[in-house]
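Changelog-adjacent note: as of this version, every example in the card shows the full chain rather than a window. The one below runs 388 residues end to end.
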Amino acid sequence: MAASGRLDGLRIALFSGNYNYVRDGANQALNRLVGYLLRQGAQVRVYSPKVETPAFEPTGTLIGIPALAVPGRGEYRVPIALSPRVRRDLAAFDPHVVHVSSPDVAAHRVVTWARRRRLPVLASVHTRFETYFRYYNMAWLEPVIEAMLRRFYRRCDALVAPSESMAQVLREQRMNYDIGIWSRGVDREIFTPERRSLEWRRSLGLADDDVVIGIFSRLVMEKGLDVFSDAIDELKSKGAKFRVLVIGEGPAREWLETRLPDAVFAGFLSGADLGKGVASMDVLFFPSVTETFGNVTLEAMACGLPVVASAATGSQSLVDDHVSGRLITPGAVHQFAEALRAYVENPDLRAQHGAAGERRAQEFSWDRINQAVADTYVRLVRQKRTRR
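Full-length structure tokens:
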């Protein structure tokens, strides 16, 4: 392994529950990481479920692993085993370090495989799995899932979390004692205020002087869509004049269309089109509590939007309350509505807080962020060799 940030000769086995078959912020971050590692001279082999028509082409070499569709959410796959074929491939690759990015069955198996060979294991935490059950009337399962996660993460040598607020949650949950930060970056060529387009807004029936409250996300209930729609209803009842713009697709789209019949649904957008859509909003409203970082929040800030978000992991590390947006108690519909009304009725406040958010977004460079993960790999490998 070379110095000065180079990783020549380092072999990394990365296990993911979703590397490229459904597009989301976590797997796009993993693909960016692999691209960076390859440019630095490392060898990377990715193990993840495959589908016939993935959302995008994978970065690097992708090896399919056995998986089953998630009941009720068939677009997702759960890795269920390390097959003999995968074990042979893994042994032939002979990694120096194993990186697991989801606490599934295959990840448990590969952690055992690595520990038997005295290889270091790094786990990256991308979502708060234990909170998902709140949205499916199974909140009683949360402590059980948390205990299962603790068992998994304590078998790893170190964790990396996307934000300091999420790292603190993991410390409080006693998940591990070696927890670092693998933040997220933002593509400033795509997400910038310059992409704002009144012509694009007009094509959707949005007037130039409409104040547009937007959300862009995969449309699933765990993103807080119930809180989003309730707060919008309360804001309407106060007589505020605004429009709602929804960007994204997902199984909850029909529910949200029924719930907010006056909203404009732009569907799935990516790349420059997504940047244009986000920059053409006036306020981002994102009440999710399941985020560990909040790519959506950072991308909106880079476009110069004030953000109204839940005071939860992820957003707390990005939004400065009353400076670049508002952080509201999760689920507090009335407070969300009041925060939104202030932005709808005060264009100077929108501009001031949006500009502050854009300045904050300038601090997030992908290469610097991904080098922190590379440095962790190197540290863990050296520590393991020293112990031997």
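Structural remarks: The mean pLDDT is 91.
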